[in-house]
Every structure is written in structure tokens, then in C-alpha cells.
Amino acid sequence: MIEMPPLQFASSNGIRMGYYEAGPASDAPPLVLCHGWPELAFSWRHQIKALSEAGIRVIAPDQRGFGVTDRPEPIEAYDIEHLTDDLVGLLDHLKIDKAIFVGHDWGGFVVWQMLLRHPTRVAGVVGINTPHTARPPVDPIAILRKRFGDSMYIVQFQDRTGEPDKIFDSRVEQTFDVFMKRPQPRKDSAAADGDAAKPNLAFPQMVAAYDASRDTREPILSPEEKQVFVDAYSTTGFTGGINWYRNMTRNWQRSAELDLTVRVPSLMIMAEDDAVLPPSAADGMEKLVPDLEKYLVRDCGHWTQQEKPDEVSAKLIEWRRRRFG
Questions:
Q1: How far apart are the C-alpha atoms of 42 and 60, rounded to whole Å?
Q2: Residue 105 annotated as catalytic
Q3: Tens digit of each residue's pLDDT (9 = 90 or more) over 170-206
Q4: CATH classification code of 7-324
Q5: Which of 19, 50, 134, 147 meets the CB 3.0–4.6 Å disulfide criterion with 61?
Q6: Closest CA to 104 of 20, 21, 41
């Protein structure tokens, strides 16, 4: 039996946003849990239960373009200014002054940016797998193209005709069969061999060519949990979330004047076996985040809060109590 609080809705920044809330309304500052791609507020089901039972107020929205939340048509409606303004609108709806923002994957990028753009609304930040980094000297898409080639999924997602979206949309269950698995056990030889260690990031083609009979990885989701994602994305398609990626150049162009220093208590939770956002990506974060604590989740791939839910929840509870009472 999957436990989730009742679904609620807020009018926020011109859209209708679906969210879940649990824990005592008197608890402050609450935790706002921000998911990544291709995920949903449902990705935080374990943390919603554990944190609320520990007496902590938690709020988990389906963000713009995902799940039951609106999916505006223009690609520019998914830039970082809209995504962070949506969260401000959610706080306003709930009459919350400040919150601790917790983000995984794309949600991690959003919560670090939330602090930079709306510092008076942020009490603390937790990045899960996604570090806070300096602004790159050139367009990040150019960097990814040079490093990984044109087949890298984020580079492919810049195609505004929606070709990558169609691959996922036509194979929804297959997409989650490809993504939501624990990584293969690491071979020591692969670490010594640079090519063997280099991940295949051509995700649309991986999904199109997927053969379940040859996949020996362990699923992260139960059949019932997987069905929640499959039902949601069968309804919405994948374009809303992919449009977040289509704004990476725009976000970079519009961030030149930002002060990148994070001046609130911060926690960086890293996953040992994440091929896309490895722990090494967080090296040197302390320069931009003076009040930073780091925590490594071992034997864990990219879907940290779903792969190691008890460990992630316990760390969030411990850090929140120690830093905020």
C-alpha cells in the first residue's frame, strides 16, 4: 500500500500547482521537496512519511510541467525564473515566510537558484546529488557537447521539434524500466579503464533499443510504484520536464549578474555510484557555500531518495534538528 497525503492545489505564479503536505502546520521552517526529471512529487513518498512522522512539516509539489501541475505551451515558460517564482507562489499560498528547500537532480539546481534569487524566503538548502557550482565561462550546452558529443541526452533535448520527447512518449513504461534501476555493481577494472567508466548518456536511443530480457539490474520501484509514474506520464508526456533542459542556455545568459554565494546552512547529499552527478561534482563547493556539510550515500545510484530512502530520510531529520531545532 502506497501512502501519500491528500493532493491539494495552489494558484501560483499564473499556474495551478498540485502539491502534497504532511506534518504539523506549526513546525517551522518546513521542508519543501523538489523533484527532478523524469519524476514527480511522488518520488518523495518515503521522505514525506518519515519526516512528517518525526514532527517535521513537509511540502512536495509536482513542479511546472509535471504530473497534475499545469504545462504551459511556451518553452521560455520553463526557465529558472519561472521555476523559482512558482515556489515563492507556493509559499505565499501556504502563508509560509521561509522554508528549507530540498532538491534532487533538476530540483537540486532549482533550490540552489532559489536561494540566489529569493534569499529572504530560504532558511536552508539541501542538494541531493546536484551541487552548487560556479557559473561556467561559456554556454553549458557547448560544454556538454564538447565533452560528451551530440548524442548526450541534454544536447539532444535542445532539439525543439520534440523528437526525443516522442521516443519517451511512445514508450512510457519502457522509459521507467530503463531509468529506475539500481546501477550495476562496479567492477574495479572499469575504474582503471577510462572508456569502460564513461557512461552512455544517449538516453533516447537507450530507451528505443531497450530489451528487458537482457537487463539484469534490480528495479528501484515496485510494480505498484512504477504504475504511478507510468500513469502520470502517459497522461502528460515528457515535454514539460524536457523544456527545463531547453532553457539551460537562457538560464546561463540571464545569470551573469547573480551573487553565487550561499549564505544559509546547507547540506550536500551525494550518491557514490551516480554516473551523471558523481560525488566529485561537489568538489570545491565550500568556496561558494561556506556553511556546508557533505554526506555520502554509499552503494547508491542516481535515484537517491528512492534507492536509499531510510538513510536519506534519517540524514534530513538529523541535520534539520541539529541546525534548526
A1: 8
A2: yes
A3: 999 999 999 999 998 776 434 444 444 567 899 999 9
A4: 3.40.50.1820
A5: 19
A6: 41
